[in-house]
Amino acid sequence: MSQIIIRPIVTEKMTAQGEKEGRYGFEVARTSNKVQIKQAVEKEYNVTVTGVRTMICRGKNRTRYTKSLILHGRTPSFKKAIVTVKAGETIDLYSSI
Q1: Whole-model pTM?
Q2: Does domain 5-85 have CATH number 3.30.70.330?
């Protein structure tokens, strides 16, 4: 993977959007912009990107109960990009598994 794309997001919702609408989700570097994300996806997966939407997903609060005390923490925040590819093209996210 490149420095921009950290990992693809493989969830039930993203898989359905990929099959139906040609949208794929990726966790990307916090400092990357839409132009860099578009270039990285086109280079990595050999597809034509028609749109990029980005969002910063805030980490969730987590509480863990142990024998002696209660631990409070937070999952890390990350930047997510939803990439739309040209009609008729697909990205095979499962080929590298």
Answers
A1: 0.85
A2: yes
In single-letter form, the type of residue at position 22 comes to G
pLDDT digits (tens, 9 = 90+) for 42-86: 999 999 999 999 999 999 999 999 999 999 999 999 999 999 999
CA-to-CA separations, 31 to 10, 35, 48, 79, in angstroms, rounded: 22, 12, 23, 9
Q: Which of 51, 34, 46 is nearest to 95 (CA)?
A: 46
| 51 closest CA partner among 81, 6, 7, 27 | 81
